[in-house]
Specification:
The complex is a heterodimer of chains A (about 325) and B (about 325). By secondary structure, chain A is mainly α. Chain A contains 10 helices and no strands. Chain A is about 65% helix and about 0% strand. With about 325 residues, chain B is mainly alpha-helical. Chain B has helices spanning about 1-30, 35-40, 45-55, 60-75, 85-120, 125-140, 145-160, 175-210, 210-220, 225-235, 235-260, 265-275, 280-305. The termini of chain B are close together. The chains are: A mainly alpha (about 325), B mainly alpha (about 325). The interface between A and B is large, with 44 and 57 residues.
Chain lengths: ~325, ~325
């Protein structure tokens, strides 16, 4: 049966949904939502489970760090010799350490130190590494010199480099961040340099040069946007590595001062007693491992999502 | 070939120069005045100044750096502030446990990681591959001291299969030596295994795409032969490279592992030196380990030409 044309001519409006034989989609919006939106959050999580799990865990840790004072914690530095080395119980969820301090509170407050160090190092190392990488990639005559210096720094194992720097200064969170940042910069600047060098060969950069675009504009328009994806992935790995190095430095007594509860410090203090009271070491250890795992998952997921070509590299 | 080797060896000179300059600068700006320390509490400023001159501490940075390098080239790493012993002798005394730990870890890690990586590439995108890669992410994420305590708790404290802590010199028998090193080596090796396995998988996946693999399959060769003989040989360069680069993880991790397992090695020496602010010792260790690291990677670079005859520089 052929559909009858709408009865416009009669002047009577016809409801397309009820009019016989007429199929009109009345509900179609003017503009279709983008593909991503149509797939929705569920679709994104399904395609990138690593990003979803990683960011969910990391978000949980962030919330713990921010709300540490209000989630059942007491003063993490309050001494109570009368109730030292208590096993985990309803009163002390993670037990107490050898000075009677509440391990649960200390671990939760420790989240602040770890995340601060991790994020600060990731941001600082990225910015400085970006600057060095750009200079190295664009100004050829300093490239050789800068890269020899970076090779030299990279040939010192990062943990030893951080230890050597920390030995010079007093233990403080700021100094820990500086020391780890210096240890991480060479890797970031090498990455940026390699991205810059390969981008410079791109036809559109040649075209921009031919059109007379000035170098700062080329960097801003064509180079920088393309470094964002690899830099973001690299930043997550730097963040994870920084948190591990911070814990190691604190663990061997060259990091965050003992007055500040950090996961490395709690483990360092639990070291002497760990054979009889293993929980003092294990609770911060679990938090540290989960947080680093979350960041690594996020990094792997971002790497796969942002640049499928990078998957093969490692 | 000879030209390449010479060029490659010369290329390490600027790298070592940067390391030396960095380490010397640390010593130079280290807080505390060695002259004042040696002079003692009773010394007058004139005494301190005289000692400073006799030690040559009043001379310019460049000259002191030159003399320091000259000393280093004669295997003189300076003297410990704390024990007054030569740093080189202190390190030599502690080097055996550290070398043992690193050697055992290296052998153990490589012999596990490479086959595991090959299998992951072989069974790519199956549940086996996913499981192996999930373990690799875990290996990257769980810090060495966490694995160390966990292993020691389960296998030494609860099951009592292996010693909790300590070190037995190799001279007292191979088995007692090895028994003490199993847990530390496994703990230290986890990150390393993860790194090598991941790289092996990626390198193998690349190689498996090539025509000669298809030819081998067409000829009816066994999968095992194709994987472990034909493919692995051609994937060797990136794998060997990452084994060399990963030595840095072992060196850094050894400091922590030795602390967890109470192994009296160079790592413990480092930690003690930090607590005592014994700068010459810290500097000596950093310099030595960096030198070893550069040397290993130099050897690996030279190995490329053997592994892949196509590489000609």
């Amino acid at each position: 049966m052929i559909a009858t044309p709408p009865a416009r001519a009669s002047g009577v409006p016809v409801d397309p949904a009820t009019a016989p034989g007429i199929a009109v989609a009345s509900e179609l919006p003017d503009i279709l939502p983008t593909v991503k939106l149509r797939v929705g959050v569920v679709g994104f999580v399904w395609r990138h489970p690593a990003i979803a799990i990683g960011s969910a865990l990391l978000l949980a840790m962030l919330l713990i760090a921010v709300f540490a004072p209000w989630i059942g914690t007491v003063d993490p530095t309050a001494l109570a010799p009368a109730r030292r080395t208590r096993e985990p119980s309803a009163a002390f969820w993670f037990g107490t350490d050898m000075l009677g301090r509440d391990v649960y509170s200390r671990v939760l407050y420790g989240t602040r130190v770890s995340l601060t160090v991790g994020f600060a190092v990731a941001i600082l190392a990225s910015l400085v590494g970006l600057a060095i990488g750009l200079v190295s990639g664009f100004i050829r005559w300093v490239d050789g010199f800068i890269m020899r210096v970076m090779d030299g720094l990279m040939s010192i194992p990062p943990i030893l480099l951080a230890i050597a720097l920390m030995a010079l200064t007093r233990g403080s969170v700021g100094n820990v961040i500086t020391a780890i940042t210096i240890a991480e910069i060479p890797r970031v600047s090498r990455l940026v340099r390699s991205v810059v060098l390969s981008l410079r060969e791109q036809p559109y950069v040649d075209a921009a040069v031919a059109a007379g675009t000035r170098t700062p504009m080329i960097i801003l328009r064509h180079i920088l946007p393309n470094t964002v994806a690899p830099m973001t992935v690299q930043a997550t790995y730097v963040c994870a590595s920084a948190m591990i190095i911070e814990a190691i430095l604190s663990f061997i007594g060259a990091g965050t001062p003992p007055t500040i509860p950090s996961w490395g410090n709690i483990m360092a203090e639990g070291r002497a007693l760990w054979q009889v009271k293993p929980y003092i070491v294990f609770f911060p250890a679990i938090f540290l491992s989960v947080t680093v795992l979350a960041i690594n998952l996020l990094g792997d997921g971002l790497r796969d999502a942002l640049d499928p070509r990078m998957v093969k590299r490692l | 070939m000879l030209a390449y080797i010479i060029r490659r060896i010369l290329a390490t000179v600027p790298v070592m120069a940067v390391v030396a300059l960095f380490v010397f600068s640390l010593l130079y700006i280290a807080p505390g005045d060695p002259a004042a320390v040696i002079a003692g509490d009773q010394a007058t400023p004139a005494d301190v100044e005289r000692i400073r001159q006799s030690l040559g501490l009043d001379r310019p940075f460049v000259i002191r750096f030159g003399e320091w390098v000259w000393q280093i080239l004669h295997a003189d790493l300076g003297t410990s502030i704390f024990t007054n012993l030569p740093v080189a002798a202190m390190i030599a005394q502690r080097i055996e446990p550290t070398l043992s730990l690193m050697a055992v870890t290296l052998v153990l890690a490589v012999s596990i990681a490479v086959p595991v990586g090959v299998v992951a590439a072989w069974k790519a995108d199956t549940i086996i591959d996913r499981a192996i890669m999930a373990f690799a992410v875990l290996g990257f994420s769980v810090p060495v001291f966490v694995i160390g305590y966990l292993l020691a708790y389960v296998f030494a404290l609860k099951l009592e299969w292996l010693p909790v802590q300590g070190y037995t010199p190799l001279s007292q028998g191979v088995w007692p030596w090895f028994k003490n090193l199993i847990l530390p080596a496994v703990a230290l090796g986890c990150v390393y295994v993860a790194l090598i396995a991941r790289t092996t998988r990626a390198a193998m996946l690349e190689v498996l795409q090539q025509d000669y693999i298809r030819t081998a399959r067409a000829k009816g060769m066994g999968q095992t032969t194709i994987m472990f003989v034909h493919a692995l040989k051609n994937a060797a360069v990136p794998i060997v490279t990452v084994i060399g680069i990963g030595i840095a993880l072992l060196i850094g991790g050894a400091v922590v592992t030795e602390t967890v397992f109470a192994i009296p090695g160079v790592g413990r020496l480092t930690v003690d030196a930090i607590l005592r602010r014994d700068y010459p010792v810290i500097q000596g260790i950093v310099l030595l380990f960096s030198f070893v690291y550069v040397l290993i990677n130099l050897l690996i670079d030279l190995l490329y030409t053997v592994l892949d005859p196509r590489i000609r520089y």
